[in-house]
Amino acid sequence: MKILLVEDDVDMSKALSRALEKRGFQVSACADGTQALRQIRDAAHDLVILDLNIPGLDGLHILQRTRSQGIETPIIVLTARGAVGDRVAGLHAGADDYLAKPFDLEELEARIHALLRRKGGGEEAQQKCGQLRFERSSGAFYHGDLPLEFTPREQALLKALIARPGHAVNRERLLQLVFPDDANVQVEAIEVVIHRLRKKLVATHTEIMTLRGLGYLLRQAARDA
Questions:
Q1: 88 near 126, Cβ under 8 Å?
Q2: What is the rounded distance in angstroms from the CA atom of residue 168 to the CA atom of residue 221?
Q3: Residue 173: domain span
Q4: pTM tops 0.85, yes or no
Q5: I need a surface site. Which of 125, 144, 208, 214 has the fewest CB within 10 A?
Protein backbone atom coordinates (compact mmCIF):
# COMPACT_ATOMS: atom_id res chain seq x y z
CA MET A 1 0.00 0.00 0.00
CA LYS A 2 1.32 3.39 -0.98
CA ILE A 3 1.31 6.21 1.56
CA LEU A 4 2.19 9.86 0.98
CA LEU A 5 3.64 11.40 4.14
CA VAL A 6 3.44 15.21 4.25
CA GLU A 7 5.64 16.36 7.13
CA ASP A 8 8.17 19.21 7.28
CA ASP A 9 9.98 17.99 10.40
CA VAL A 10 12.88 16.10 8.79
CA ASP A 11 13.61 13.86 11.78
CA MET A 12 9.92 13.02 12.26
CA SER A 13 9.49 12.32 8.55
CA LYS A 14 12.48 9.98 8.38
CA ALA A 15 11.56 8.12 11.56
CA LEU A 16 7.92 7.70 10.59
CA SER A 17 8.81 6.64 7.04
CA ARG A 18 11.17 3.95 8.33
CA ALA A 19 8.63 2.70 10.87
CA LEU A 20 5.85 2.44 8.27
CA GLU A 21 8.10 0.80 5.71
CA LYS A 22 9.05 -1.86 8.29
CA ARG A 23 5.32 -2.55 8.59
CA GLY A 24 5.03 -3.21 4.86
CA PHE A 25 3.94 0.19 3.55
CA GLN A 26 5.54 1.97 0.61
CA VAL A 27 6.14 5.55 1.75
CA SER A 28 6.93 8.68 -0.25
CA ALA A 29 7.53 11.87 1.70
CA CYS A 30 7.40 15.58 0.98
CA ALA A 31 7.73 18.65 3.18
CA ASP A 32 6.03 21.36 1.12
CA GLY A 33 2.29 21.94 0.80
CA THR A 34 2.32 22.95 -2.87
CA GLN A 35 4.33 19.87 -3.79
CA ALA A 36 2.05 17.71 -1.65
CA LEU A 37 -1.07 18.93 -3.46
CA ARG A 38 0.57 18.13 -6.79
CA GLN A 39 1.50 14.63 -5.67
CA ILE A 40 -1.96 13.93 -4.26
CA ARG A 41 -3.48 14.98 -7.57
CA ASP A 42 -1.02 13.38 -9.99
CA ALA A 43 0.21 10.21 -8.26
CA ALA A 44 -1.72 7.17 -7.06
CA HIS A 45 -1.61 6.80 -3.28
CA ASP A 46 -3.77 4.60 -1.09
CA LEU A 47 -3.63 7.07 1.79
CA VAL A 48 -2.16 10.42 2.82
CA ILE A 49 -0.78 11.34 6.25
CA LEU A 50 -0.89 15.12 6.42
CA ASP A 51 0.62 17.56 8.89
CA LEU A 52 -1.27 20.86 9.10
CA ASN A 53 1.72 23.13 9.82
CA ILE A 54 3.74 22.89 6.61
CA PRO A 55 5.29 25.57 4.35
CA GLY A 56 4.02 26.55 0.93
CA LEU A 57 0.37 25.66 1.50
CA ASP A 58 -0.98 24.68 4.90
CA GLY A 59 -2.76 21.42 5.57
CA LEU A 60 -6.28 22.85 5.79
CA HIS A 61 -5.96 24.44 2.34
CA ILE A 62 -4.61 21.16 0.94
CA LEU A 63 -7.64 19.34 2.35
CA GLN A 64 -10.06 21.88 0.93
CA ARG A 65 -8.49 21.92 -2.54
CA THR A 66 -8.16 18.15 -2.66
CA ARG A 67 -11.82 17.56 -1.87
CA SER A 68 -13.02 20.41 -4.13
CA GLN A 69 -11.23 18.71 -7.02
CA GLY A 70 -13.10 15.47 -6.39
CA ILE A 71 -10.07 13.59 -5.04
CA GLU A 72 -11.25 11.06 -2.46
CA THR A 73 -7.93 9.57 -1.32
CA PRO A 74 -8.19 8.86 2.44
CA ILE A 75 -6.36 11.49 4.51
CA ILE A 76 -5.26 11.22 8.13
CA VAL A 77 -4.34 14.54 9.71
CA LEU A 78 -1.35 14.16 12.02
CA THR A 79 -0.54 17.36 13.90
CA ALA A 80 0.35 19.05 17.14
CA ARG A 81 -2.96 20.92 17.03
CA GLY A 82 -4.96 18.75 19.41
CA ALA A 83 -7.76 21.08 20.49
CA VAL A 84 -11.33 20.06 19.71
CA GLY A 85 -11.80 23.12 17.50
CA ASP A 86 -8.78 22.16 15.41
CA ARG A 87 -10.03 18.60 15.04
CA VAL A 88 -13.44 19.82 13.91
CA ALA A 89 -11.86 22.22 11.39
CA GLY A 90 -9.75 19.44 9.94
CA LEU A 91 -12.67 17.04 9.64
CA HIS A 92 -14.89 19.70 8.08
CA ALA A 93 -12.14 20.49 5.56
CA GLY A 94 -12.19 16.87 4.40
CA ALA A 95 -9.96 14.79 6.68
CA ASP A 96 -11.04 11.19 7.22
CA ASP A 97 -9.30 10.86 10.58
CA TYR A 98 -7.31 12.99 13.01
CA LEU A 99 -4.45 12.01 15.28
CA ALA A 100 -2.72 14.52 17.56
CA LYS A 101 1.00 14.53 18.33
CA PRO A 102 2.53 12.92 20.29
CA PHE A 103 0.97 9.68 19.07
CA ASP A 104 1.45 5.96 19.44
CA LEU A 105 2.72 4.26 16.30
CA GLU A 106 0.55 1.19 16.91
CA GLU A 107 -2.53 3.42 17.05
CA LEU A 108 -1.54 5.14 13.81
CA GLU A 109 -1.10 1.78 12.08
CA ALA A 110 -4.46 0.59 13.37
CA ARG A 111 -6.16 3.75 12.09
CA ILE A 112 -4.48 3.36 8.70
CA HIS A 113 -5.75 -0.20 8.31
CA ALA A 114 -9.23 0.70 9.56
CA LEU A 115 -9.49 3.60 7.14
CA LEU A 116 -8.26 1.56 4.18
CA ARG A 117 -10.79 -1.15 5.00
CA ARG A 118 -13.62 1.40 5.08
CA LYS A 119 -12.56 3.06 1.85
CA GLY A 120 -11.72 -0.17 0.03
CA GLY A 121 -14.71 -2.29 0.98
CA GLY A 122 -17.94 -2.83 -0.91
CA GLU A 123 -19.01 -2.18 -4.47
CA GLU A 124 -17.89 1.46 -4.36
CA ALA A 125 -14.25 0.29 -4.24
CA GLN A 126 -14.56 -0.27 -8.00
CA GLN A 127 -16.25 1.71 -10.72
CA LYS A 128 -16.94 0.09 -14.09
CA CYS A 129 -18.14 0.96 -17.56
CA GLY A 130 -17.96 -1.55 -20.41
CA GLN A 131 -14.67 -3.38 -19.89
CA LEU A 132 -13.08 -0.37 -18.21
CA ARG A 133 -12.55 -0.66 -14.46
CA PHE A 134 -11.31 1.93 -11.96
CA GLU A 135 -10.02 0.82 -8.56
CA ARG A 136 -10.36 3.68 -6.13
CA SER A 137 -7.98 2.19 -3.56
CA SER A 138 -5.03 2.24 -5.98
CA GLY A 139 -6.20 5.00 -8.31
CA ALA A 140 -5.53 2.75 -11.32
CA PHE A 141 -7.61 1.96 -14.41
CA TYR A 142 -7.76 -1.55 -15.84
CA HIS A 143 -8.94 -3.34 -18.97
CA GLY A 144 -9.61 -6.74 -17.49
CA ASP A 145 -6.47 -7.43 -15.46
CA LEU A 146 -4.31 -5.19 -17.65
CA PRO A 147 -3.43 -1.81 -16.10
CA LEU A 148 -3.91 1.14 -18.43
CA GLU A 149 -1.57 4.11 -18.72
CA PHE A 150 -3.01 7.61 -18.79
CA THR A 151 -1.48 11.03 -18.30
CA PRO A 152 -2.48 12.82 -15.05
CA ARG A 153 -4.91 15.03 -17.01
CA GLU A 154 -6.45 12.09 -18.83
CA GLN A 155 -6.80 10.24 -15.54
CA ALA A 156 -8.45 13.22 -13.81
CA LEU A 157 -10.98 13.57 -16.61
CA LEU A 158 -11.73 9.86 -16.84
CA LYS A 159 -12.22 9.59 -13.06
CA ALA A 160 -14.88 12.30 -13.25
CA LEU A 161 -16.71 10.50 -16.06
CA ILE A 162 -16.56 6.95 -14.68
CA ALA A 163 -17.92 8.16 -11.33
CA ARG A 164 -21.32 8.49 -13.05
CA PRO A 165 -21.46 6.47 -16.30
CA GLY A 166 -24.28 7.59 -18.53
CA HIS A 167 -24.51 11.02 -16.90
CA ALA A 168 -23.10 14.15 -18.49
CA VAL A 169 -20.40 16.22 -16.82
CA ASN A 170 -20.19 19.78 -18.10
CA ARG A 171 -17.00 21.16 -19.61
CA GLU A 172 -16.56 23.83 -16.96
CA ARG A 173 -16.50 21.22 -14.20
CA LEU A 174 -14.06 19.07 -16.14
CA LEU A 175 -11.86 22.12 -16.70
CA GLN A 176 -11.64 22.66 -12.93
CA LEU A 177 -10.68 19.02 -12.34
CA VAL A 178 -8.20 18.64 -15.20
CA PHE A 179 -6.53 22.08 -15.08
CA PRO A 180 -6.99 23.12 -11.42
CA ASP A 181 -3.93 25.39 -11.28
CA ASP A 182 -4.27 27.08 -14.67
CA ALA A 183 -6.74 29.98 -14.61
CA ASN A 184 -5.91 31.00 -18.18
CA VAL A 185 -6.60 27.71 -19.93
CA GLN A 186 -9.49 27.72 -22.39
CA VAL A 187 -12.42 25.33 -22.19
CA GLU A 188 -11.45 23.98 -25.61
CA ALA A 189 -8.39 22.36 -23.99
CA ILE A 190 -10.75 19.70 -22.64
CA GLU A 191 -11.47 18.61 -26.20
CA VAL A 192 -7.79 17.79 -26.73
CA VAL A 193 -7.77 15.50 -23.67
CA ILE A 194 -11.06 13.91 -24.77
CA HIS A 195 -9.62 13.24 -28.24
CA ARG A 196 -6.61 11.39 -26.77
CA LEU A 197 -8.79 9.41 -24.37
CA ARG A 198 -11.15 8.24 -27.09
CA LYS A 199 -8.27 6.57 -28.91
CA LYS A 200 -7.05 4.83 -25.76
CA LEU A 201 -10.51 3.57 -24.77
CA VAL A 202 -11.40 1.78 -28.00
CA ALA A 203 -10.24 -1.64 -26.77
CA THR A 204 -12.20 -1.30 -23.50
CA HIS A 205 -15.54 -1.09 -25.33
CA THR A 206 -16.35 2.24 -23.74
CA GLU A 207 -16.81 5.57 -25.45
CA ILE A 208 -17.04 9.23 -24.55
CA MET A 209 -20.07 10.98 -26.00
CA THR A 210 -20.36 14.69 -26.61
CA LEU A 211 -23.73 16.17 -25.64
CA ARG A 212 -24.01 19.67 -27.03
CA GLY A 213 -24.78 22.17 -24.30
CA LEU A 214 -24.42 19.54 -21.57
CA GLY A 215 -20.87 18.24 -21.71
CA TYR A 216 -19.50 14.69 -21.96
CA LEU A 217 -20.53 11.29 -20.68
CA LEU A 218 -18.94 7.86 -20.54
CA ARG A 219 -20.95 4.85 -21.69
CA GLN A 220 -20.57 1.32 -22.98
CA ALA A 221 -19.78 1.45 -26.69
CA ALA A 222 -22.95 1.54 -28.76
CA ARG A 223 -21.96 -1.54 -30.77
CA ASP A 224 -21.75 -3.53 -27.52
CA ALA A 225 -24.86 -2.14 -25.82
A1: no
A2: 15
A3: 124-220
A4: no
A5: 144
